[in-house]
Write a structure and sequence with these properties.
Layout lengths: L19 H21 L3 E2 L5 E4 L5 E3 H19 L6 H11 L6 H20 L2 H20 L1
Helix pairs in contact: 1-4, 2-3, 2-5
């Protein structure tokens, strides 16, 4: 008895953005602006005295709030992978941005090196995973504001 062959039907094709999209879409404007601040010691300040950068659309964004989220995502990544990542230089930068202090040369070099390592990590996180982590972090920060 002959068995009938099944007709071939191609599977669903799922378009997935390349991993490097993470870096370019989510944090590239922030990282580039942060590098300029570290290298030059100058940042744009809004009418309330908050250090800001411009996102892809030109909208003013707070360095301080974005850097808090950036650090939290790195901590989540470290916890998930079990690979340690030293966020202290970025946390020190948070304090200096909040107080509008200029970085000394040694601190600037350490912070830049940490930022480069962070960019390498963000480039390896799958896009959907990074979006999920970003959503969780934003929710955490919203909850902190309401408490």
């Amino acid at each position: 008895m002959a068995t009938a062959k099944k007709k071939y039907r191609p599977g669903k094709i799922v378009a997935r953005p390349p991993v490097l999209v993470n870096s370019f879409v989510l944090f590239r404007p922030f990282e580039e602006a942060l590098k300029r601040v570290i290298e030059t010691g100058q940042a744009e300040v809004d009418e309330h005295g908050i250090t800001i950068y411009r996102d892809v659309s030109g909208k003013p964004m707070s360095y301080w709030h974005t850097l808090q989220q950036y650090i939290r995502i790195l901590e989540m990544w470290s916890g998930k992978t079990g690979r340690p990542f030293e966020t202290k230089p970025l946390k020190d930068l948070l304090d200096q941005l909040k107080d509008l202090k200029v970085l000394d040369e040694e601190t600037a070099e350490i912070t830049l090196a940490t930022l480069v390592k962070a960019q390498q990590i963000f480039a390896t996180i799958p896009h959907t995973e990074l979006l999920k982590m970003t959503a969780v972090v934003r929710m955490e920060f919203r909850e902190r504001k309401t408490v």
